[in-house]
Amino acid sequence: MHQRPLGNTGRSVSALGLGTWQLGADWGEVDEADALAVLTTAADAGVTLFDTADVYGDGRSEQLIGRFLRERGAHEITVATKMGRRLPQEKANYSPENFRAWTDRSRRNLGVDTLDLVQLHCPPSSVIDDASTYDELERLVDDGAIAAYGVSVETSAQALSAISRPGVTNVQIILNPFRLKPLDEVLPAAADAGVAIFARVPLASGLLSGRYTSQTRFAADDHRNYNRQGEAFDRGETFSGVDYEEGLAAADELARALGEGVSLPAAVLAWIAALPGVTSVIPGARTRAQAQANADAAELLDGGFDLDAFDAVIRDVYDRRLRTEIHPHW
């Protein structure tokens, strides 16, 4: 597994990480044994980045990761958590008192004195653009509550704003064949600034997994059922904002361009990880098999797969099918 520098922290993280939203909530039920098996499988495959948040299962995801780290003694793993969605996304709620309360709760959930990396969890632009936000995060670093901080964003404009702040370690943004706008400015700016990029929702909430059809039905507590039009949070978080049927057709076109023996999800994960400026791709997993398959995609980075040819297909499909609808929004 390729390991890459995490900004200027002195840490390295794997090119393929693990997103753990699925282990908390909003994707259907995952029992504790299965969740711990996912974490074990990923770590055994060389994954050294777990991405979580304090609201995933109201802390369940953090607690499971904390238990795993204690039982395994996995000191090589960096845990990137997020804060800021335990209250309405209003600027007044991003206060020093709440920053402290949120980080203290995550420290208890994870069972650590210092959090490796805390990311603001898709806050409003007014928070990202405010210099005082970063002053408060620096105080948490000085106090030893967190080792580093970053920002998870919805839009490329927000990413560029965060990248301009000298203390920011990473920016997390949706990046996949259905969401190419970050390639225009965000990735070059991050590379120039030495800011790590975590690519989230890399398989477009499963649309790029090749497993879904028009007949697929999602559970009532799965955001792919209840948030398609942004009813609960930004609609770009669900299927990357792409219409479900159009996404199925685009995914099918991408899959048909692949050679024998290369799956669509593996090709997509490798393509994202190979993009200049991307530090880690953080697909989620609900089963051991998914976690193993995601990690195995890193093997395509070592040759035997024509990433340039696949890149050309991705850009063509995006331009014809998705650019007009998707590019202006995020």
TrEMBL record:
CDD domains with a match to the protein in the record: AKR_AKR11C1
What InterPro entries is this protein classified in? AKR2_Oxidoreductase (IPR053135), NAD(P)_OxRdtase_dom_sf (IPR036812), NADP_OxRdtase_dom (IPR023210)
Q: Source organism's superkingdom?
A: Bacteria
Q: Do you know which Pfam families this protein is assigned to?
A: Aldo_ket_red
Q: Which residues form the NADP-dependent oxidoreductase domain?
A: 16-300
Which residues are listed as membrane-spanning?
none
Record-given protein name: Aldo/keto reductase
Q: Which organism is it from?
A: Microbacterium binotii
